[in-house]
Amino acid sequence: MEREDADGALDLWAQFCSLSNELLAGDGDLTVGPRLAPVVANLCTRGLATLVRDYSLHSLEVHTVPSPSRSLLPL
After folding, report:
1. Residue 42 and which of 17, 26, 36, 52 are 20 to 30 A apart at CA?
2. Residue 10 CA to chain centroid, in angstroms?
3. Between vectors from CA 63 to CA 10 and to CA 7, what angle results, nearest 5°?
4. pTM listed for this prediction
């Protein structure tokens, strides 16, 4: 991988992480999606689809807090 390609991939990864966190931890602003989609597509084109998937799944686990209404109550 050329240095410019590596720098580009790192910039895209940083952008992906930032936008993903903004989407998951934000105030419900769904305008992040249209900015995130081309970054994901570019990372996947570079062969990083598995990394994108794993990071996304991990982020969902970290940012998902069970709501009290969904907790199991004793019968």
Report:
1. 26
2. 15
3. 0
4. 0.76
Q: Two tokens at 1?
A: 């991988």
| 69 falls within a domain | no
For residue 31, the enclosing domain spans 3-62
Measured CA to CA, the distance from residue 7 to residue 27 in angstroms comes to 31
For residue 21, give the nearest of 72, 56, 70, 67 by alpha carbon.
56
The residue to which tokens 């940012």 are assigned: 63
Which residues contact residue 48 at a Cβ distance below 8 angstroms, ignoring those fewer than 6 apart? 9, 13
pLDDT digits (tens, 9 = 90+) for 54-74: 999 998 888 776 655 555 555
pLDDT digits over 5-44, tens only? Answer: 788 899 999 999 999 988 888 777 788 989 999 999 999 9
Q: How far is Cα 47 from Cα 61, in angstroms, rounded to an integer?
A: 24
